Amino acid sequence: MTNSTGENRRNASGARLSRRRLLQASALAVPGMMALSACARLTSAGAGAASSAAPSLQLASPTNPVKWPIAAGNEPIAAGLEPERNATLRLYNYADYLNPEVITSFEAKYAEYGVKVEISTFNDTPEALTKIRNAGTPFDIYFPSYDAIGKLVLGGLVRPLEHSYIPNISNAYPEFQNPFYDVDWQYTVPYVLYTTGIGWRADRISEDIGARANPYDVLWDPQYREHLAVLDDYREVIEMTLLRNGGTEVNTGDDALLNAARDAMLEMNKLTQPRVTITGYTDLPEGRLDLSQAWSGDLITALGYLPEGVDPSVLRYWFPSDGKGMVNNDTMVVLKGGENPVLAHLFLDHLLDAKTALTNFTFTGYQPPQVSITPSSLVSEGLIPENLSSAVVLPSYFNTGYRALELAPEVDAKWQAIWQQFKAGG
Amino acid sequence: MPSGRRSGSNSKPVADLKQRVNRLTWPILALPSLAWLALFLAVPFYVVLCVAFGDIDPLFRTSVPIWNPLNWRLEQILIIFDRLFGPNNFYLAPVVRTITFVVIAVVVCLIIAFPVAYYAAKYAGRRKALVLTLIVAPFWISYMMRMLAWVNLLQTDGIMNSIISLGGVLPIEVNWLSGKSYTVVMGLIYGYLPYMILPLFAALDRINPSLLEAARDLGAGGFDVFRRVIVPMSIPGIAAGILLVALPMMGDYFTTDMLSGSPNTSMIGSLINTSISTPGQSGQAAALLLLVLLVLAGPMIWYTRSMYSSEVRT
Amino acid sequence: MTVTELPSRRTRSKSGGPHAHGLATITTIYLLWSLVPVAVAILFSFNAGRSRSVWQGFSLRWYTWDPNGSILNDPALRNALLHTITLAIIATLITVPLGVTFALALDRWRGRVPTGASFAVLLSFVIPEIALAIGLLFLVTTLATPFALGTTAQLIGLITFQLSYPVVIVRARLLTIGKQYEEAARDLGATALGAVRRVLLPMLTPAIMVSAILVFADVLDNFVIVRYLSADMSTETTSMRIYNTARAAPTPALNALATLILVTCLIVIVVGWLLYRRWSKGQGEDGGLTSFTSTL
Fold this sequence. Notes:
A: alpha/beta, 9-stranded mixed sheet, disordered N terminus, C: mainly alpha, 70% helix, globular
């Protein structure tokens, strides 16, 4: 991996990951939203104890799959249309979260139509949604986390998909052809998968963190004080703390559980003084951190940041071997405000192509849910070194693991308050 | 603009017209900037008020500004007060921390800046231009670059650690950048000190040397001259310096972010910065900002008045 | 900033006072402390290796020839540099004329409106930057403004924040000039505006020059306003770039970026100083470095 991709990707996880969570409860003050919120009250089937209390969005969960409505006037485009000519396809994405080669190959594939792809990136999610909503720039494709779909649909911001343009969906894991957050994949196709665990440097930390009775405890261990970090992401840290406390309800609104998590987080602040950052994927390889809560893709990205002379095998990643940890995915949607719906569909299909997906993976370090990319092939083909085989996202994790679901607004408020308190420092 | 119309009746119409034109000149010249300030200073401030006293959408958790002051709600303000003085007052720690950091930093700034400014004003002699240029130099170097310089020096494998461990001989390795209050305070001092030196220099430079000689001739010792003449005469400079340094420090979040990144060194600015980028909390950010402005209003208005009176005095 | 016009006499104090030695030592230590870290940062922008703490030989790698990571070849770095300079130029071109006319008007026009306006300008100078930035952010995101976040919003914020520089500096200069020249011109039949244009403006040129340099330099340095009002990667400035990546995975290219901004700033100051000296001399005034720097 050359410096260049490293350099370009530096911001990749950085810019993207902090935003992933922000997306969840973001500003969607669509004009006439009051009318929409009436629709939103249609169902309040709950994921977890929390959502039953107030009228809210439908909160999709594996036990409560949601089939989103298709609003009148927002039907899918017709099948078999010609791609737009001389169009500029506008992607709205996290910085460097896409391999430029994938863009080049798309442009080459539809060269006869004169397509040009333009990526815009954003610094802040409320701002991103403000822009999508005001349609200042007619973006065609957006890459949300699956737990934001409800708001995007209810806000009338996304276009339902015409499946005939996207035959490559068959390359995706079957569960993503009918995901709980979007039954019948009416609006989304899957982008990449990731788990959340702990990354560390084996040359600096002698113990095998996975061997601990409760590996999460390592973040509370004073012997690593000042040399560790947690993700700058409220959902991830609180979820991790809930799991560490022995809970399994990672989307809880229960005050007792949340208060216990809060107290544990404040205790962590005192005991180990963690940095709160999403730059672990460079801090670990470059030696500024010994240990960090991390996304699986971060450790694979980190390989590109190892200084010369450092053995790649020092990077380690732990995720519960029984699969009972946080496992999530991002999606791709076609925005209603876009001017090139046909090309947008074709681009989604392009990214679901097995070869394209693999090319993209080598750049982003995040694994696409492709049937052809098997966990064993990733290791055997040397895309992921043996010592990081735990960073491979296994399809079975989606049965055993916990998923970060959309939170009811009032539950989200509680989570945010805890995060604020944690960040304020005691 | 009213003042332009006051020309009254004049018997000579041409002169009258000319006078009118002349009187209208200034309001017209002022108009673009007045409109600018109204649109981009006054209106944004009003929007902050409307957000701070605004509502939160119950479903989407976004701030809903309330434009009519008669309907303003105190919800956000109460949340802030609760976090400052309520049972779970977790805002208090960063507030106290900010005040402590700022007070220490300002005092150290003053202790360093005074002798430097005094030397530049009174003793630099032929080298005055050079000394002054060097003192002013940090102004021209971007704040972020100066912080970057320290981030480089303070890495665990950086130059600072190799100096204090005598090139790795001693087993000392300080983790400067992981939540150390002293690193952050040092960063604040380093970042803002030039803003203290300049007003001090101006005040000290203004002191007429013959005044000091007169004091000496009257039998005052060195320390007496310092205490009874120099310090009192530089009070306006000291006050201006303290304000110029303390006000921006109160809103600073990037220094602690770059030099620490740990919640244990969060400042008020960090609270505002985190809230502003969190959905549902921009109202709280606005309310917190208002409170900060309210507390700082006194010093800000005092400073503005003193500058204003020095501007109009003829 | 507050140091507007200083007496330009040469100080002739004896440089051998009792405390002079101690003071000189303190000053030297201070100057070393304030400048050496920056010098080190500049030095490492020329490092041949990736490290920012271990010297691996002199090279322009991070400026030009590194095929991917250098400023010349990394579009993100290149764009940050260009965007910063663009903002500085445009903001200066708008702020200075706006501020100079405002200063003239406020100085001559009597009444409540100008008094209030003077106060507002000064307030915009001391108000914490974060307040103005957040105000404008809310303005753009909650109202249907004709401009979106991005370059335009950044410029609006910067101009509002910088407007006080030319106003304060030009007004201070107007004070020292006094009214006699203008009145003489008016007696000779010039209109108010004509008197300003023919008589005052040439005399104000040094002050205008200085405020232009100040605004330019300050915009290059700005962080809080440009960050809150930025839109996407294309509106990222060098200060934001440094903030975003200083703790992540910086290469010496980041140092090189900061160095280039510093060089830009220095060029503007030196050119400004030369012009300043020329104009001041033309008016029979002391155009020394001391009065120039202290005006800043």
